[in-house]
Structures are given as structure tokens and as C-alpha cells.
Amino acid sequence: MTDAPEREDVRPDPRTPAPRTPVHVDPAPDPARRPHGLRAVLAAAPSAPSGWIALGALPVALALWLLALPNARLSRMGDLGLLQALPPLWFAAPVLLTVGFVAVLRSPVVRHRWAGAYVLALILVVHGTPSLLYPTLRYAWAWKHVAIVDAMLRHGGAVPGAGKLDVYNQWPGFFEFHALVLRATGLDSVLGYASWYPVITNVLLLGPLLLLYRSFTTDRRLVWGGIWLYCATAWVGQDYFSPQAFAYLLHLTVIALVVHRLAARRRFARAAAGSATGGSVSDAKSVSPSAPARPAGPSGARALGTVLDGSARAGWRAAPFALLLVLIAAIVSSHQLTPVMLAVSLLLLALGRRNRRTVLPVLAAVVGLTVLWDATVARPFVSANLSGLIAALGSPDHNAVAGLARLGEAPFGQILASWADRGLTAAVLLLALAGALRHRWVRRVGLLPLLVAPIAVLLANAYDGEMLFRAYLFALPAAALLAAALLWGNRAGTRAEDALPPGTAPRPATRPGGPLRTGVCAVLLLGLLGGTLFGYYSKEAMNYFTPQEVAAVRYVAETSAGSRIISLTADEPGGELNFDTHDRLVLGDAAGEDLRHLAAEPGDALRGALATPNAAGGPTYLILTRAQVLDCELTGLLPASAVQGLAAAAAAEPTLRRVYANEDAVVYQYTDSGAGGGAAAPAGGSTP
Predict the structure, then answer these.
(1) Which of 154, 507, 577, 660 could form a disulfide with 667 if both were Cys (CB 3.0 to 4.6 A apart)?
(2) Residue 376 DSSP class
(3) Could you report the per-residue pLDDT of 429-447, keeping only the tens digit for each?
């Protein structure tokens, strides 16, 4: 983690001596002879024969994808989710994209435009498919966050009477940001763009990923191979409209800026030392960046580099460090876990002595702002959960396996998808480990700390059983580049090279592999992408909400203030709408003996919940939907007999009056006057 490879496409300072060996300099192309139109497109394509595959696979894949979408049948979704609803033609698109991308990397010179086009197409096919097929927003959690933005917009800030959702008042950064977007744009709701948030998030992630990877290596094959692997193995599904996705994007941006600064600082130190000693840049590799040296820098540095780069002795300049402070403040105010992940990653990066001048100020800012926030704004939550956080530190084994519970009670398709997820996770980490063992340079540039840091946090807390998957997500940027180094890197070609003279065409750091290696890479990439599709799409039957379900939930949400709403599970499209004026009871949130009682005697458990007085004095409603039933089935929360028993008990209960019904949902009102039944609600919907 102490040395970074040189940037291949940054020209050296004129004062830096040329390499001892002669280098061929390609003549500058004549602007008048540059091809135009179709000839320009063909000239930009990779060389034949792989060039023709790369040129044709992309448009054909997108065309097949668009042709397949109208033939999708959402009603076919079962225990394998969207995979059962998509026609066979759809699967040809990701296969062709993978083959075409491998052809791009097979070319002697990897062009940014073609590699980037394939990555963007992959994002569109994988993440844009649900956005185009679903008439409503997916994920109950995304609907919850929409409701919180709406409430904060109505109240102009913190929401009074938030109850269990008061935690979002203590980390409001994400919601306040989107409330500001709505005020600035005049939009009525974030629903206008929340459905496309996975696509937007993954496209925005390409920026910090490019900056991060190009700080480690200038080999375009490794850079774009790592980005493809990241996009093709990010199965966790934390890219929906959420504080986690927002904070993760900012977290990766901070890491990329810090690593870029480390690489730039060492590059300038070597250039300065080489100029001072009269040798080449590579002769100065052993010179410490803190040694006195005259500032030197490449004349062709990019605009971002001119802001972030400085002399060999310099720390952070005011402007880039102020940008980091803004990003860190947004992370700290938006999410509980991400600042911890960021602090641990920076701490491990700071273990390298040469890194400390750059990393320690940023680490101090992260720790300081996090402690300040937790001690003030988030103090109620921290005080109430401090004992649980401390107890989790003593149970690393439980934290690591907490996300594997209840698989035996789920249907076969979910068990298969879950093992596919875990197999994919293990495969990516094994490829990353093999890449670290094969290439010594990756062990010196800071990749391993970024890979290990999330694992350390995994052992500290279970995070409601999700820490295993969150740790994989945070380790994935480093793991993807390490795996790319294994698949496309060469031991002798990936190392840092002496700086080239101004005007020299950049040399590829690696050579394209032979047919056998290319075929193995293609098969491996297809297998990894297949595992991602299993993980990302397998729960779509419960993540997808029909318009009928949305209408039923809105009917309940628009009832009079003080109403109490009872549901089987929280898997609803907007069950938290108007949460500041309604009380909510989720039967499936019960634990221990109460949950076992619900499974064994669902009718008795329902009557007990209905008989509990509503402290607000308003009416009590029961809502049952299609997605709630599938939630119980796919997660193994309750047996099918319990779900059917509860539905039958509700239909036969004399104190429940059906006030709204359609083919995917039913709403009952509790009419017992002694239990705060309140005024009768008007009937709505249609009879199923």
C-alpha cells in the first residue's frame, strides 16, 4: 500500500529525462484526413476480428432486449421472481453484451468509448428492465422513503409524532436533499424519478469507480474489466431509492478522491526526485515523498489533477478538502453504517507511513463529524441502542451468519437463489484473493485495505441480519479490480513503467489473451452475471406491486387522522404514507412466542390485535394484499396455513366490515364501538 503504478496516459514534466531506451513516437494524425460518418465509427471500433464482434453485439443486444420486453408476463412471477416472467429472447441480450465486451478487451488497444458503451448497456438491461416493466415503484422500502420525503416536505423538516420512524429524523440528510430537489424543480413527488433510481445510481457510480481504478493502474483493460465485474456482480440490490444508495455513492467518491491524491502525490515525488538526481522517474521509486524536493508535475495533467495534485510535501489544498468535508457531512447525516465503513477503510489505508499525511486529515474529519452527530442529533437513537451495539461486538460469529436465517423454510426457488448469491459472493472473493496472490503490485497500492475493511465491520455488528451482504457491497470495488487483474493482467506488463516523452502514444500495459484465455473469461463472466440475475431478480414477486395494491394502500392512508392500520407484513406500497397521523401495527413483526402464536392460531392472534384499544381514538383497519402473502411465502416468515387461516378468520370475523376490495387487496374496518371503532369508512374498490 506504499507504491502506486505510474499513470500511463499522463505526460511527464519537460524537466524529466527521457527513458534510456528509444521509444517509437507515432506521428500526429492529419485533421484533414480524419474519417467521418460511418468510416469514423468503424475506425473507432476495435480491430478485426474481435472488432466486428464488438461493433455488432452491442446494437443487436439492445434490439433483442427491446423486442423481448413487451412479451414479459409479470403474472408468471413465482419463487424465482422476474426470471420466470422474462421471455427467452431477453436472456440473449446480457449474453451478447458479455461476449461483445470480452471482444472489446480482446483488442490490442481498449477504447474508452466502446468499453463504456457496453457497461452502460449492461446497467440499462439489468436495472432498467424492472423500471420499464413495472407500472409502479418497486420495493416496500423505497415506498417508505418516498413517504418520509413527503412528510418532511409537508413539515418543512423533522416530522413530529414519527413514532418508530423517528430514526429518520435523526439521519435526515438523504430526505432533506430530495425535498430540496422537489422544491427546486417544482415536482410534486419523488415518485417521478424514484423508479429509475437504480439506473441513475449505477451510472453515477461509474465516475468514482473510474477515478479509483485509474489511480491504481493506467491499463484500460484492467480499469474497464474491473468496472464490468463490479456491475455484473453487484447482486445485493442496495441501489434503490434509499439513504444507503446515496451514502454509498458518496463513500466511494471520498475513497476515490483520497486514493487519487495518494497516487498523485507519489507520482509528483518521483518526478521531482528524478529531476533532482538527473535520472529517470523509475530511478526515484525508493525516494520518500516527504523528502525535500522541488515541485514537479506532468504538463498534461487533467483538470481534476490540477486541483488535487500539489507538491511532494503538500497535504490537502483548501478547495478539495472542503469538497471532502461536504461529502463526509452528507454521509454522516444520511446513514448510520456508512461512516463506520468509511472510517475503517481510511484507518487501514493510514497504516502505510507514506499515506498518513494524506489520509489522517480525512480520517479525523470522518471520526470527528460522526462523533459530533451521534452525540447531538442522533443521541436518542444511540443512547437507546448503545447496549445492543456493545453486545454485538462480542458476537462476531453471530454477526457473520445472521443473514442466513430461515432458508430452510423458504420455497425451493428461494433456496436455490440464496445459494447462488452465496456462491457468487465466494467466487468473487476467491478471484480477488487469487489476483492479490498473483500480482505483487496490487498488494502495494492500497487495494487490500479496501477489501479487508468491510470484513472487520462485519465482525462488529449484525445490522439486522444484513451485514454480510453490506460487507460484500463495500468490498466489491476492490474485489472487482483484483479479479480483473487476475483475468486480464500480466505479471510483467501491469507494473509501473518509466514516464514516456511528451507526444508518445500510450502503450497498453497488458496484451490481449489468446483464444483459450478469452473463452475462459467469457464463460466466467457469463456465470458471474447469471448469479447476479438470480440474486437481483429472485424476490421480485414480492418487490413488485400492482396498481390495485397501490390503490388499496392509498385508500387506507387517506383515512381520518388517528386511524390504526393493521397488516400482516410491512411489504406494502406506501404503508407509511401519512405515518405522522396514523398508528401502524404489523403482525409479522412479532417475535418469539408471539410470532409462534400467530403461526399456530392466526385467528386468535388477529382478534387479540383488533381488541387492543386505539389510543388515538380513531378507527382500526386491517389490510391484506397479494405482496404480503408472497412475503410470508418467499421469506418463510409464516407457513401457508397460517396465512390462509388469517385471511379466512378476517373474512368470517363479525366485527370486521369489508370497506374496500379488488383482485389484489382487501381492506376491513373494525366496527366494535367499545374498542374505538370510530366512524364507518365509505366502501370502495370492487368486489373480487
Answers:
(1) 660
(2) T
(3) 999 999 999 988 888 888 9
